[in-house]
Amino acid sequence: MIDGTDQRDARVVSLDRARDRDRRQHATxxxxxxxxxxxxxxxxxxxxxxxxxxxxERGDWLAELAERNRRRRPILPGWLKSRQEAAETAKWVxxxxxxxxxxxxxxxxxxxxxxxxxxxxxxxxxxxxxxxxVFDAEGEPVRMAAVQRADAELYLxxxxQRDARVxxxxxxxxxxxVVLMLAGILVAAAPTWAQWAALALLVGVLxxxxxxxxxxxxxxxxxxxxxxxxxxxxxxRALGALGxxxxxxARAKGADAVTFPAPITRDGxxxxxxxxxxxxVTVTDVIERRDRLASGLRxxxxxxxxxxxxxxxxxxxxxxxxxxxxxxxxHTAWPLMTSGRADLFKPLPFGTDQRGRPVSIPLMFANxxxxxxxxxxxxxALRVVMLAAALDVLAELRVFELKGxxxxxxxxxxxxxxxxxxxxxxxxxxxASLREVYGELVTRAKTISGLPKDICPENKVTPELAAKRSxxxxxxxxAVDECQELFSHPVHGEEAAKLCEGLIKRGPALGIIxxxxxxxxxxxxxxxGISANVGIRFCLRVMGQVENDMxxxxxxxxxxxxxxxxxxxxxxxxxxxxxxxDPQIARSAYIDGPAADAIADRARALRxxxxxxxxxxxxxxxxxxxxxxxxxxxxxxxxVPPDETDVWSETVVARLAELRPEAYRGWEPKQLAAxxxxxxxxxxxxxxxxxGRFVNxxxxxxxxxTRALTERDHARPTG
Length: 719
Ligand SMILES: Nc1ncnc2c1ncn2[C@@H]1O[C@H](COP(=O)(O)OP(=O)(O)OP(=O)(O)O)[C@@H](O)[C@H]1O
Hints:
- This protein is of the alpha/beta class.
- The chain has 25 helices and 17 strands.
- The strands form 3 sheets. A 10-stranded mixed β-sheet has the order 6-5-14-13-12-7-11-10-8-9. The protein has a 4-stranded antiparallel β-sheet with strand order 1-2-4-3.
- The chain is elongated, with a radius of gyration of 40 Å.
C-alpha cells in the first residue's frame, strides 16, 4: 500500500490539483495566463485550490468576510437615502398618477357614452344568461346525448336532477325579481338625483357586461414599453458591438467572459448594471467607445453613462442607462432658488448628476476651475457657485467678468468688488483686487498664528473665527470669468498669474477661495502653476486630451474622465472632479439672468440685515491707490514726457521695464506693438540721426497715446 508516511519519495496528491496541473500543462501557448475556474468564480467555487497555491490559512475566512463586508448591498434603496432624492421620487410618482387621473377624468364623458351604447347588449346578455341559468341550459347537451343513446336510466337521473335544480333556481330568480321590483319602487319614490344615479349605475353595470372582449372601455394614459428594461443580454450585445478584440475573443472562449457581480437593478430614473469586463479590458476602453455602446444598447448617447469604480479593479464597470437623455431631463429646482441661505463651510448645492441626485461643491478650503469650449455653460456654472456664496452673508465676493457681456451682473448687488469688461480697465481692476486679496494672505496668516491654540487648533479658519468680524477672517471668494484674458494680458498677465498662484496655494487655509472660468485652457492662458494646484474642477465639453487634462488634472483623460465625450447639446453638463471621492458627471442648476437677479436681491437683503454689505455693493468706490497705474497707456504716458513727440519702441520698453520691472521686464519692441494694437495704436517709422548716420526704427507717437487716453476717459461710465 502506498501512503505518504512509509514511501519517502511519494507525495500525497490531490486528484483535483493533479487535474488542474494537467490542464495547465496542456493549455494552448497563446493563452498562457488563462485563468482557472477558481480565479473566475466567487462564493463556493472561490475556495477551490490551484495546484501552485498555498493552503489557505485558517484566518482567511476573516479576509473573505471583510471582502464580503465591503460588497454589502445597501439595506435601503439609493433613492431613499437622501431626503431630496426621496422627495424627487415621491414627486414624480405623484405626478405620474395625477397625470393618469387627469387623463381619465377628461375622458369620463366618452366612457359614459361607451357604457350607454354597450348597455343594450349588456342587458340582452344578462337576461339571456339568467334564463340559461334558471332553466339549466348547460345540462341540455348531456340530456340530449342520453336521449340519442336511448339510455333511459341516465336520462331519468339527469331529468330528476334538472327538475330539482330548476325548482330551486326559479325560487331564487323570483326572489331576485321581487328585490329588483322593490328597488324599482324605491327608486321611483326617491329624489331625482338618486334616480339618475340608479340609472347611471344600471347603465354602467349593463354597459360593462356588454363590453366586447377585444375593446377595453378605458384608454391607456401612458404609452407602454417606451423604455426597455436593461438585461444582461442587452449589455452583452452592446459590449460585443464595441469592436474590442479582447471582449470578443473572451466571449468566444467562454460564456462567463463578462460577469455581473451584482444584479441589474433600477437606480433612480434608469438601470444600473455592474460588469466585470474580461481580463485585460479596462473601463477606459469602454468609455472611449461610448457612442458605440449607446448604439449597441439602442439608446440615445445622453442616456448611456459608463463609469469606473475607483476602489475596484480597472475592469469593473458601472453602466447606468437612463430612461431619458440627460440633456433633455427636466431641471431640478436649485434648492436655494426661492428661499434659504448658504453656509460656505458646508457643501454648496450645485446641480444634479445623471441620475437626478443632488451634487454639491465643498468650496471652503478649496479653489474651483471651470473650463470648456465657448457656449457650453461655464458662466452658468460659475453663476450657481457665486449665487450660493452670495447667500452666505459672511462671504466677501469679488467678481470679475472679463467678457464684458454682464453675465454676472447680479453680483453688483452683493459683491465687495466688481468689474465687467473686455478692456484693460476691467483687467486692471481685477489685478488690483487680486493684489489686495494677496496682501490679505500675510495679514490673515499673522492673525491666525497669533490666536491661542484652543481657539484655532488647526491653524486654519473655522466657522467660529470667520463669524468674528473683528478678526477679519471671513471667507473671501474671488471669481474671474474668462480668466484667459487676464493671464494672457501683455501688461498684467504675468503679475496676475503670480498672484493667483499664491492665492491658490496659500488661500484655502486662510479662507480665501479663487474661482476661475476659462474657455481657452492652454498653457499660455492658464499657467500650469494654477492648473496643477486647483482642488475642484468642472470641465464641460472640450475638444481634446490636452484641454481635458488642463482642466481636470493630469492623467484624467487616461483614467477615463473625458469631457471630450460630451456633445454640443450637453449644455451645462460636465465632469466634476474633487468635489467627492470619485469624479462625477454633473449638470449645473439652470439659473437664468432674471432668476439670478431675484436671488441676488434676496442675498442683498440678508446682507443688509446682517450689516455685511460692503464695497462696490454698498456704493463705495474701490480704493486702488495702493496699486500701480492701471493700464499700459497710463504707463507710457508716465514714461514719455509731453515734450517727446516720437520715441523709439526700444526706448519705451526700456523705460517701462524700469518703471515696473515685474510687468515689463524682457519686453521687446514687437511685444509693445502687439500690446498697443487692441487700443487702435500702430507703431510708426521714426528716423533719427545717430553718430552722423540716419537710422530708421519703429516707435510710438505720444499724441496717439494721449488721444487714446482721452477717448477712454470719455467712454468711462460716470458715477
Ligand atoms: N445647466 C444648464 N442647463 C441647460 N442649459 C444650460 C445650462 N448651462 C448653460 N446652459 C445653456 O448654455 C448656454 C451657454 O451658457 P454660458 O453662457 O454659461 O456659456 P459659456 O461657456 O460661458 O459661453 P462663453 O464661453 O461664450 O462665455 C446658455 O445660454 C444656456 O442656455
